[in-house]
Write a structure and sequence with these properties.
Blueprint lengths: L17 H16 L6 H8 L3 H8 L2 H24 L5 H16 L4 H17 L1 H27 L8 H20 L7 H16 L2
Helix pairs in contact: 1-2, 1-4, 1-6, 2-3, 4-5, 4-6, 4-7, 5-9, 6-7, 7-8, 8-9
């Protein structure tokens, strides 16, 4: 007979949704307070579990930061990956990717995502393990761009180009533009950023 009473920490499993709740709480708290001021106990208190359970799932606060950022990006990557199986042209895919990238910087999730990203970069600069996680996340982003470009080459939409070199340069260009949009630069809103990024891609890929 299954007990209907409240579960203890030891009975909780990922199917209970606790891990997702922890990631949501961590993302919100880090963006509100900053990484340095956010404690494991704060995350636990927000969702009503013990600090030990948070440590069980994530081991360290650095790992919690990395996973919270990945969680924050999950919807973006799901939409971006769907582009690769859509019957769109390379130009259309790049434009949609820019819409996804820059619309996210002006949405209600702006402060959460960029609060996480800024703290993540700071921690990666100072801590080797977070630096490894940062490289993994950057490689995921560049890999997506590489696959889009190679798909365009395969279909004959563009001539042969160095897809990896383009991905490195375009990803860096997009990151720089997105930071300025996130910081509300008066000379660079999302629309202008998308225009500049598309012009760069068109020139480099000879679209």
């Amino acid at each position: 007979m299954t007990s209907k009473g409240p579960k203890t920490d030891s009975e909780l499993t990922p199917i209970d949704g606790r891990r997702e709740q922890m990631l949501e709480a961590a993302a919100a708290l880090i963006s509100e307070l900053g990484f340095a001021q956010t404690r494991i106990v704060d995350v636990a208190e927000r969702i009503g579990v013990s600090p030990g359970l948070v440590v069980y799932y994530f081991a360290t606060k650095d790992k919690l930061l990395t996973e919270a950022l990945r969680y924050s990006e999950s919807a973006f990557y799901a939409s971006a990956e769907a582009l690769l199986t859509s019957p769109a042209t390379l130009a259309e895919r790049l434009e949609t990717l820019l819409d996804l990238n820059f619309e996210s910087t002006e949405s209600v999730e702006l402060s959460t995502y960029w609060g996480l990203s800024f703290d993540f970069w700071v921690q990666a600069f100072r801590h080797p393990q977070v630096a490894v996680d940062r490289r993994d996340i950057d490689n995921q982003w560049r890999s997506l761009i590489v696959r889009m470009v190679r798909a365009g080459i395969d279909t004959g939409e563009i001539d042969e180009v160095d897809a990896e070199e383009f991905a490195v340069s375009w990803a860096a260009y997009l990151d720089g533009l997105a930071v300025q949009v996130a910081l509300a630069d008066p000379l660079l809103d999302a629309q202008r950023a998308k225009h500049l990024a598309l012009r760069f891609a068109t020139r480099e890929l000879r679209l």
